[in-house]
Amino acid sequence: MALAKRIIPCLDVENGRVVKGVKFLDIRDAGDPVEVAKRYDEQGADEITFLDITASHEGRDTMVHTVERMASQVFIPLTVGGGIRTCEDIRKMLNAGADKVSINTAAVFNPEFVREAAERFGSQCIVVAIDAKKVSQPGEPDKWEIFTHGGRKPTGLDAIEWAKKMVEYGAGEILLTSMDQDGVKNGYDLGVTRAISEAVNVPVIASGGVGNLDHLVEGCIEGKADAVLAASIFHFNEYTIPQAKQYMRERGIEVRL
Amino acid sequence: MSSIAVIDYGMGNLHSVAKALEHVQPGVEVRVTADPEQVRTADRVLLPGVGAIRDCMAEIRRLGVDKEVREAIASGKPFLGICVGYQALMQFSEENEGIDCLGEFEGRVNYFGDDLRDQAGERLKVPHMGWNEVQQSIDHPLWANIDNGTRFYFVHSYYVKLAQREQVAATCNYGVDFDVALAHNNVFAVQFHPEKSHTAGLQLLKNFLNWDGRA
User: In which pathway does it act (chain B) (predicted)?
Assistant: First the structure.
């Protein structure tokens, strides 16, 4: 009897449509984030994350409507990330029905924003997203740095110190994406996942690089993550959420079935 | 059609809970309101709440919600508290250096602690965030069609301990044993979020909408 490790499918959304594609044989419109979220909800996902990659402001309003539609039909927690820069952005998303917002680049450029947001809305809805890349060479002590702009721009910030600082500022959860792994499907960077999970007292969601179900297991056991996020392995029906949960349970991980 | 007042004192998003109620009982009149008349004339009352207790209690008192809650509980109509709306019914919370709450029930709201561990000695994160098993302590109409031990979604750093053990409707364990549901006459209150707890949560809300307020 214990708290279950959470499995969180993540959808990249642009102008109100899922990008990178999601293939469910029995959904007519796999581009509609709400349809996809409903399917994951039926499968037993523990949470859903929408990542808004829309560039324009007008597109952002589309996201608000998407969140509203989602919140009327899907009754599990929803996190919205991407383009959250002001308290007004947060207020809009929460009012539309999001449970948490994820702050990324804005936190790097203005850490006080995290403090302000946590004070105003409560830490429980403030997730700080961290994109970390290993910068130490083989043979050197491990070191990970925070990157922005999809992993292109180094910031000089040490990932572990940054995570601790963000929690001190009021982050209620850390969404950790290990950049060197992302999309490569070699699994999470377990070193940085474990280091951050042990360094902070709030839940850590592991993200980036999931290619198979063993990666989810490793993220929980070796990475000590409290939740595991994945995109493509679920989107293309390589694995379903129940398969993932069953697999994890067989390996001794507490899950919600 | 029956009506339910979801008391809006400005703390957090009430969209989800309103939508969940409409979802389980299409046609139900959901009033998201702090207006005393709207609350008084509703068939059922729901007190939600998220965020810090100091801010919640300040708004509850400023808007006169304390009086509305007392009247609703005294009226005998079905009353449901959720999360901070449950904690607010207690006498006192440790949060924000100690805050006096509504005192409708004898109990305290305590911090999980910075060095919380499970029985095996593994460190437990705070907030308690995610899906945990709810052990029902009593039979109650609100537990209808919900299996004992079902997981519900939680997000909180402070937990309720009730002084009157016969009021405990369910418990949970996260480093400590704590009381996640209260039942007393026409009042039911829960620490978890039924509006975010998938089918089990929706079932509980449905049970509430069908409940006559008698245990």
Answer: Amino-acid biosynthesis; L-histidine biosynthesis; L-histidine from 5-phospho-alpha-D-ribose 1-diphosphate: step 5/9
- Number of domains observed in the structure of chain A: 1
Does residue A19 contact residue A28 with C-beta atoms inside 8 Å?
no
pLDDT tens-digit map of A183-233:
678 899 999 999 999 999 999 999 988 999 999 999 999 999 999 999 888
User: What residue of B is the nearest CA neighbor of A167?
Assistant: B126
What is the CB-side half-sphere exposure of residue B182 using CA atoms within 13 A?
A: 29
**Complex ipTM:** 0.93
Domain residue extents for chain B: 3-209
- With contact defined as beta carbons under 8 Å apart, do B135 and B172 qualify? yes
Q: Is the pLDDT of residue A95 over 70?
A: yes
Return the bridge partners of A7, or none. A228
Q: What architecture is the B3-209 domain classified under in CATH? A: 3-Layer(aba) Sandwich (3.40)
The pLDDT, as a whole number, for residue B209 is: 98
Alpha helices per DSSP H over B79-214:
84-87, 198-210
Chain CA centroid to CA B196, Å? 13
Q: If we measure between CA atoms, which residue out of A222, A148, A154, A156 comes closest to residue A191?
A: A222
Q: What confidence tens digit (pLDDT) does each residue in B158-189 have?
A: 999 999 999 999 999 999 999 999 999 999 99
What distance in Å separates the CA atoms of residue A87 and residue A75, rounded to the nearest whole number?
25
pLDDT of B208 over the 90 cut: yes
Chain B residues whose CB is inside 8 A of the A94 CB are 12-13
Residue A125 lies in domain: 6-251
- Is residue B184 annotated as part of the catalytic site, yes or no? no
Neighbours of A243 (CB within 10 A): 14
Does a structural domain hold residue A114? yes
Domain CATH code at residue A176: 3.20.20.70
Q: Does B127 touch chain A (CB under 8 A)?
A: yes
Query: Contacts of residue A98 in chain B, CB cutoff 8 Å?
Result: 13
